[in-house]
# Entry
Amino acid sequence: MMLSSFSERVWKVTKKIPRGSVATYKDIAYALHTKAYRAVGNALNKNPHAPIVPCHRVVKSDGGVGGFAHGTVKKITLLQKEGVIVKNGKVVEFEKRKVAFSSLR
# Structure
């Protein structure tokens, strides 16, 4: 299967998210100079490089956990192992945990 360069660029940006931090699908799209948020999610859903490309660290713009190829329970477990607290399906202290957009470029 040939992967698009878009997916590869998504994975490259996602790889920059540090342990214990999160970024949004929108942040990654902006880092790639696009508004294709859904395409970012689709690329992450097909990520063959996990956990090297930590797609579990990508969440919704409202701090909600969002989807995950291995299920949201697994995503929450991975985030919590990194010290990210999730309560009622949302990242606690979301703004503090969110990586700066500029560091994703």
